[in-house]
Amino acid sequence: MVIVRTIEALQEAKKACVGTIGFVPTMGALHKGHLSLIQQARAENEHLIVSIFVNPTQFLEGEDLDAYPRKEEADIKICELAKVDILFMPTIEAMYEADELSIGAPAVRGYILEGQKRPGHFSGMLQVVMKLLNLSGATKAYFGKKDAQQLALINQMVKNYFMDVKIIACDIVRDENGLALSSRNVYLNAEEKKRALCLSRSLKRATKLVMVGELSVEVIQKEMLEVLEEADMVEYVAIVDRAFNPLVRVEIGNTIILAAAWVGKPRLIDNLWI
Ligand code: PAF
């Protein structure tokens, strides 16, 4: 594995990549969820590039960029063991110049749900993903379904800007009890970890309803909220199509059901694709 920190070094290392390139962009502090993306990309491509870059433009004012977990040594080990070919760890200076042009998230779908909570976050995310996709020259790029709205907006960017890369949506990785893996789970104590399962349970309740033919978004949301009473505070329960347009009735094969709630310290999200 080669570790590169500049654009020039990345371009040089890429000269050895003849054939398909799989790419997994990350902000580091890698966990099993990232590892599953890396493993899938490894299996499906001749070459594998992973990036670790804590992107400042997707943090809002007041959000603590410096407090974002950094585990460089452990991350390098994980990538080595996963047989990554190129690990790209650029500096902020290598990625950005002053007075950049920017791309913006769509005015509606970029500012609802997670985008309402963090207005502007998705513009910064799209900006860096555009840069990273261009730099990697990826044939396929891998993103987790856990961040479903991020994934939908990346798909839209690739479509709107005619980008030549295939976006692969990877399944959510869960622990043995069904809790979706997240770096925030470390903040849950044993009791909160149990209560946090109400998110995945609310999604199971939704599945059961759909399986018996209940497609009304209103009815499903109401039932999910009952299950979510165990959380400290529910932020939203939403049912949208795969491009994040709101739905009135579930469309089998084109629906994502989402929940966001606070349990103890962390704010947790989970979703289910139907
Ligand atoms: O999901 C993430 O970790 C980040 O938003 C991404 C896609 C690496 C862009 O910084």
Question: Which descriptors would you attach to this protein?
Answer:
274 residues; alpha/beta; Rossmann fold; Pantoate--beta-alanine Ligase, Chain: A,domain 2; 2 domains; six-stranded parallel sheet; three-stranded antiparallel sheet; 9 helices; 9 strands; 37% helix; globular; binds pantoate
Q: How do the SSEs run, as a string of H and E?
A: EHEHEHEHHHEHEHHEEE
Distance between the termini: 38 Å
Biggest sheet, spatial arrangement of strands: 1-4-3-2-5-6
Overall outline: globular
CATH architecture of the largest domain: 3-Layer(aba) Sandwich
User: Could you tell me the number of beta strands?
Assistant: 9
| Radius of gyration computed on alpha carbons | 19 Å
List the uncertain runs: none
β content, as a range? 15-25%
> For the residues shown, what is the average pLDDT?
97
Which ligands are bound? pantoate
What portion of residues is helical? 25-40%
Query: What's the number of domains?
Result: 2
Which fold name corresponds to the CATH topology of the largest domain?
A: Rossmann fold
How many helical elements? 9
Structural class: alpha/beta
Question: Short summary of the structure?
Answer:
The chain is an alpha/beta fold and 274 residues long. It has helices spanning 7-14, 32-44, 72-81, 92-95, 114-117, 121-136, 148-160, 190-211, 217-227; strands at 2-4, 21-26, 47-52, 86-88, 140-144, 166-170, 233-241, 255-262, 267-273. The strands form 2 sheets. The chain has a 6-stranded parallel β-sheet with strand order 1-4-3-2-5-6, sandwiched between helices.
